[in-house]
């Protein structure tokens, strides 16, 4: 199964979309320039920021390494950014690795045994650590010790090596996949949630300042509304609007530039792109709102079922445009409204005329409260 929220596994289609939450190497380089460096520059996420600020200030006052920190949440919301901020606030250096980069327990042992006192070890995609490495990490996090194995077979012995105090910052898009013993070793877990439009507006205004472009509030507002609650998408759309303003406008990012640019890139007013709209259109126009099975729907829009399920559907479900029911996908009344078409009588989610209407679309089995698969 491809995991949509996991940038390392995102299907290829994801890389071509303007509104995907993941990022490739080139984009990550562009992002580095826009990353907030300190906690007070970090926009939104008030709760996590407050909690983290306490953890860090207390540690600084005690002159000790803070508890290990786990950051969870969907791609592009600021986990890596926060990890960097933690080390900056502590005034220590940051060592970066990731679950997939650690193939063997020995790789992790090498990283751990080279840590210096107070350093922050950032482990991205920590849910993808191999099991033996995970077990080594438990001991290191709890007892600040790593057992170095010398020799092979029956003659092998483990020599315990004491580690200086350090802090692990783990990031995951899938905290549900973390084994409980690992999760328990984090003293603080911060869960990042999608940003609201006013927060994204602040992200955009801040980024525009750093890029040295002039932006009007109306444009920032417009871009924010199309960014799917995700700062990474907001920054990406901002760069496309800047291109448009440079090439076809007068360099100033105003409402006209924002609208025109996002029309060129086919990102609609609520952040849906071509594929999202194709899925929604097929569901409403071809199948009268459903229910329709995933593979039929995918065939109609000319995509693989996996692409529809992992690339388009999560946001459509999150926005309440599509519901997943045991009998298939259905369009909600919001979907008809968004497409500006009158639902046929008896359509799922049409105004209450018959028994088919379910005013509060309930998520199908296997779904979390937000409508995301609860795997
Ligand atoms: N609160 C914020 N304020 C300002 N900019 C932000 C904020 N959160 C994220 N960003 C910007 O969004 C971009 C993506 O953030 P980041 O790389 O930290 O996301 P992530 O959660 O680590 O994503 P992934 O799961 O893909 O690794 C960065 O360029 C960063 O500057
Ligand atoms: Mg990251």
Automatic annotation (TrEMBL):
Q: Name one Pfam family in it.
A: AAA_lid_4
Q: Give residues annotated as binding DNA.
A: 324, 329
Q: Which GO molecular function terms does the record list? A: helicase activity
Keywords associated with the record? ATP-binding, Cytoplasm, DNA damage, DNA recombination, DNA repair, DNA-binding, Helicase, Hydrolase, Nucleotide-binding
Cite the EC number.
3.6.4.-
Reactions listed under catalytic activity: ATP + H2O = ADP + phosphate + H(+)
Query: Positions of the region Disordered?
Result: 347-375
Identify the residues that bind Mg(2+): 80
Domain AAA+ ATPase, first and last residues per copy? 65-198
Query: Where does the UniProt annotation locate this protein?
Result: Cytoplasm
Region spans: Head domain (RuvB-H)? 269-375
Domain remark text: Has 3 domains, the large (RuvB-L) and small ATPase (RuvB-S) domains and the C-terminal head (RuvB-H) domain. The head domain binds DNA, while the ATPase domains jointly bind ATP, ADP or are empty depending on the state of the subunit in the translocation cycle. During a single DNA translocation step the structure of each domain remains the same, but their relative positions change.
NCBIfam families (UniProt xref): PRK00080.1, ruvB
Q: What is this protein called?
A: Holliday junction branch migration complex subunit RuvB
Q: Which organism is it from?
A: Isoptericola hypogeus
């Amino acid at each position: 199964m491809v995991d949509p929220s996991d940038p390392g596994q995102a299907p290829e289609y994801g890389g071509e979309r303007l509104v995907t939450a993941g990022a490739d190497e080139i984009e990550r380089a562009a992002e580095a320039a826009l990353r907030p460096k300190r906690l007070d520059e970090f926009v939104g996420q008030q709760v996590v920021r407050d909690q983290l600020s306490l953890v860090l200030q207390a540690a600084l006052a005690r002159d000790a390494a803070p508890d290990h920190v786990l950051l969870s949440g969907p791609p592009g919301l600021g986990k890596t950014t926060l990890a960097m901020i933690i080390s900056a606030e502590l005034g220590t250096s940051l060592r970066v690795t990731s679950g997939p980069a650690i193939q063997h327990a020995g790789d992790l042992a090498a990283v751990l045994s080279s840590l210096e006192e107070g350093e922050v070890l950032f482990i991205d995609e920590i849910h993808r650590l191999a099991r033996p490495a995970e077990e080594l990490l438990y001991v290191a996090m709890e007892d600040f010790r790593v057992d170095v194995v010398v020799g092979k077979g029956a003659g092998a012995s483990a020599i315990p090596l004491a580690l200086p105090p350090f802090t692990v910052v783990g990031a995951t898009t899938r905290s549900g996949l973390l084994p409980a013993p690992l999760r328990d070793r984090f003293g603080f877990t911060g869960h990042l949630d999608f940003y609201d439009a006013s927060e994204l507006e602040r992200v955009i205004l801040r980024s525009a300042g750093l890029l040295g472009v002039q932006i009007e509030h109306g444009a920032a507002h417009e871009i924010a509304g199309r960014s799917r609650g995700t700062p990474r998408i907001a920054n990406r759309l901002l760069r496309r609007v800047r291109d448009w303003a440079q090439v076809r406008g007068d360099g100033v990012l105003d409402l006209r530039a924002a609208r025109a640019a996002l029309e060129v890139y086919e990102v609609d007013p609520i952040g849906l792109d071509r594929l999202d709209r194709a899925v929604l259109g097929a569901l409403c126009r071809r199948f009268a709102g459903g229910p329709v099975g995933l593979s039929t729907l995918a065939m109609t829009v000319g995509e693989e079922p996996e692409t529809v399920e992992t690339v388009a559907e999560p946001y459509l479900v999150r926005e309440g445009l599509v519901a997943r029911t045991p009998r298939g996908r259905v369009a909600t009344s919001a979907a008809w409204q968004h497409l500006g078409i009158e639902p046929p009588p008896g359509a799922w989610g049409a105004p209450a005329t018959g028994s088919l209407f379910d005013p509060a679309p309930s998520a199908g089995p296997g779904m979390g409260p937000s409508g995301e698969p609860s795997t």
